[in-house]
Model the fold of this input.
Amino acid sequence: MSRPIEHDGNLFRRKATKFWWMRYRERDGTLRRESTFTADWQEAQKKLRERLHARDGNILNVVRKGESLAFGQWAETFMENYSKPPFRTHKTHVANLRAVKHLNRTFASRTLANLTADDIELYLRTRLRQQIRITSRFGTREGKRIVKPTTIHQELRVLRRILNVAVRKKLLPSNPCSGVEFPVAVRGLFRPHYVSWSEQQCIEQHAPRYLRNVVRIITETGLRVYKELLSMKNEQVDLANAVVWIPDSKTPNGVGEVPLTKLAVQAFRDQIALSGQGEYLFPSEQSATGYQYSLRTSWRLTLKRAKIPYFRIYDLRSTYATRLSAGGVADEWVTQLLRQGDSQVFKRYSQMKLKMQREALGKINRQANEMTAQTPVLENESFGTVLAQL
Done:
């Protein structure tokens, strides 16, 4: 940081204007005069101090550029250059479009530099009181239900991502979302559902053949369903060596070879026979990409036929991690098998269920401090609900 210049700056009035003006010198000594756009002397002093702090920190150009760039303009740039594939999946891009549509209604004309944490929190509280809007062929109307907090929380996450890119591009000195606290407790986020072996068998019995293979592959390999599995080509599968090659993934750690269990090899072999001579492992004539784009409808109907409460198909990946952890695999190895760069992410996937915990409590030896040479020692039993299929 450069040495502060003596007599940094001051405020003054101009004729025929109610706003305070500020006078200060650039790092090279050039004298600058700018309007503070406020008649409040305290606010004007605050803006002058911010200008001087930005000058001494060599980020004055950043502040000026952010002051002239509207949020709507930057959001459009973000969606075009940082939201579309290959930076994000098409599914994520569609979700970003929905969020930006609501964000632009409030912030489109606001400049990036003028966005504050208070403005964002006010937006969140307003959205929490709004009703959902239903679009049909007859037009748009308001529904009876209030917008879910999870939906608004997703909008906050998209806004944070947009402003984070602005910070990296030197358009903002800091992200105002860092000072925002979500007004309500959001439940249901990052709560994986563990699928027991009996529940998995029930799902497979009521699922179409291709979906049965999807369930078996994910629970045996932990592949990401949309980014890695559905877009997989036949040439990526090497059944002779029991591995599949992942050339593109959500994170750099996801790229590489994934080992296969015997059940996974059999599921891949069955799907290859089902897919025919096409290029993709899960082909689709209705999709422009050439492979199945979504499993949402078939997954929901399968769970309904199996009479199992709905849960995300992505939770099959959580089941894979939980089974490895409960089988005694070290956390470091589970993180590598999940192909995650951060070991903290593993905690979101591995969730010991109550039944597994009760089985562990059933192994308590209440005579541990009273055992003699004649006391028979019972052998520990393994978890009956985990890895029984292996």
About this structure: Residues 238 and 244 are 6 Å apart (CA to CA). The longest strand covers residues 139-146. The chain has three domains: 9-58, 71-179, 197-349. Strands lie at 9-13, 20-25, 31-35, 131-136, 139-146, 237-238, 243-246, 256-259.
